Amino acid sequence: MNKSLAKTNASYEKLIERLVKWAENRPDIRVLMIVGSRARMDHPADEWSDLDVIVVATDPRRYLSTTEWLENLGKPLLTFLEPTVGGQMERRVLFEGMLDVDFSIIPREVILRLLQGEIPPQILEIFKRGVHVLLDKDGITSQLYRRFSSVELPPPHPPTEREFLEVVYDFLYHAVWTLKKILRGELWTAKFCLDSYMKRKCMLRMIEWHAHVKRGWAYDTWFDGRFLEEWADSDVIKELRKTFSYYDEADIKRGLLATMSLFRKISMEIAEKLNYSYPIELDKKITEWIRSFCTTS
Predict the structure, then answer these.
(1) CA 12 – CA 7 distance, rounded (Å)
(2) Nearest-angstrom CA–CA distance, 159 and 170
(3) What's the CATH code of the domain at 16?
């Protein structure tokens, strides 16, 4: 372990010690659990990793609506609220020393429902990748462990042809939509659609499917693009760098055409492997229309 990582880990460990000591004296806090990189064996924390803590409380509003309690843990530089998995909220905090901590504040009744009802795949995946229990006043975590151990994540499977085409059509529709925004002079909206929506919702799905058709459906593609540089095809990674654009009309047009080219290449390879039909004539028609506006001076 390098010195920088050791120093970072020590800082987080001290913060965790303060958190546990403080929570032990809070009757409304019933459980503390670490998830994410600091609880994983696969891709464990490095010096840049944050700390993800699940706080199970009987009155979560106290910790979502106030910030004074953070002073017990360290010196907060900033904090704000953000939605998290399962329709819950988390308080994200940056402490002195740039220690980044996400507190997912979960009502106790939500955890109890997980013991009886269906477990959403996203929540199940988080727990399956690793959990470290810091505090459990009610013995809930042992029950959760048994419950989660008895449930398997849905196995990855090929998309149906309809599911595949839905992503293709979504992508092509928004390619046209992006160009129209460019031509109207709405560069912010165009760039957001191209480099966020089209890539995250459509391109990423195709990159995942592309990795699976090449390496099998049990191949781990993580979630939301995490560690994409490790699991995606190397040629895809090489081409991806050409698809992002500057905040500039000409470059957004260039990035749009590059993104369409890579998406088409990946999608056609997937279609061939799965024996699906790719709408090449539709793609050609839309591409030619877009190119006619991108090549004029």
Answers:
(1) 9
(2) 15
(3) 3.30.460.10
